[in-house]
Amino acid sequence: MALSTRPSAPASAGARMRLAMQTERPLQIVGAINANHALLAQQAGFQAIYLSGGGVAAGSLGVPDLGIVGLEDVLTDVRRITEICPLPLTVDADTGFGASAFNVARTTRSLIAAGAAAMQIEDQAGAKRCGHRPNKEVVTLPEMVDRIKAAVDARSDPEFVIIARTDALASQGRQSALDRLAACIEAGADVAFPEAVPDLEGFRDFARALPAPILANITEFGQTPMLTVDELAAADVAIALYPLSAFRAMNRAAQRTYAAIRRDGTQRAMLDEMQTRMELYESIGYFTYEEKLDALYAGKAA
């Protein structure tokens, strides 16, 4: 008797992502560092979630976001999330996890097989950097277009969403970023992601110039201001991404809790900030599992 509580989904993950993009605008996509956070995002009412490459690096591996993460590292987290949470998951695929179109194709097929709904692929070169850090280098436009074409050709689910991200704005300027995204859309990308846009007018310019939905990365402590969904809607932005908000808050909470226990010799001072045992049980469906387990053993006893 299976213990899974995952709801059945009538459509592919990619189709669920496209439906979410149609029913909410801007579609708020929040980062989920693990399966537990994916469930919490679902319970908060979000219609889509995101797995950050920087989050996999820092959260799962404890290393910087400098191209150290490999495809299998990402797939492990993707599978854990999609096996338990039905929300469409967008995955940060960095530069495709390899130097050739063959690598991008393999990444695309693997993400679809693991249950992802969308992938983000960028035009950085070599040992990539966080999109809001200096000294980023980008590949040539033809190489970026080849990455997109490889992903488009490799997708077994025609509804799987391909997001083209460019980091050219910081180093080459607005026109280069526009040219790159336009070429990626022509090559089959579904969504345009200009990284590190410094103001609302910049998003408005991209939305006016490009024939595809625009994604705004509203990450904290970066180059883009903390714009509201109303402001983004007024600029015709289709997707608002919050890749690591909960992860940053979780880390700060852990730091405070560890410091308090070490300082006080007890966790009493932190209890009001903790999720209770019952709240955790409710969030992960503990009692449903327990009921099924009891029924399973009751059947064996009979």
What is the gist of this entry?
Pfam families: PEP_mutase (PF13714). The protein has 302 residues and is an alpha/beta fold.
What Rg do the Cα atoms give? 20 Å
How would you describe the shape?
A: globular
* Helical content class: 40-55%
Q: How confident is the prediction overall: mean pLDDT?
A: 92
Tell me the number of helical segments per DSSP (H or I, 4 or more residues long).
13
Report the biggest beta sheet as strand number plus sense, adding barrel if it closes: 8 strands, parallel
In total, the number of strands is 8
Beta-strand content? 5-15%
CATH fold description of the largest domain: TIM Barrel
What strand order characterises the main sheet?
A: 6-5-4-3-2-1-8-7
Order of helices and strands: HEHEHHEHEHEHHEHEHEHHH
Architecture of the largest domain, according to CATH? Answer: Alpha-Beta Barrel
Family: Belongs to the isocitrate lyase/PEP mutase superfamily. Methylisocitrate lyase family.
InterPro entries: ICL/PEPM, Isocitrate_lyase_ph_CS, PrpB, Pyrv/PenolPyrv_kinase-like_dom, Pyrv_kinase-like_dom_sf
Cofactor: Mg(2+)
EC number: 4.1.3.30
Comma- or semicolon-separated keywords:
single chain, 302 residues, TIM Barrel, 2 domains, eight-stranded parallel beta sheet, 8 strands, globular
Structure, described:
The chain is of the alpha/beta class and 302 residues long. The chain has two domains: 239 residues, Phosphoenolpyruvate-binding domains (TIM Barrel); 35 residues. The protein contains 13 helices and eight strands. The chain has an eight-stranded parallel sheet with strand order 6-5-4-3-2-1-8-7. Strand 7, helix 10 and strand 8 form a beta-alpha-beta unit. It starts with 12 loop residues before the first helix and ends with a helix. The N terminus is likely disordered. Pathway: Organic acid metabolism; propanoate degradation.
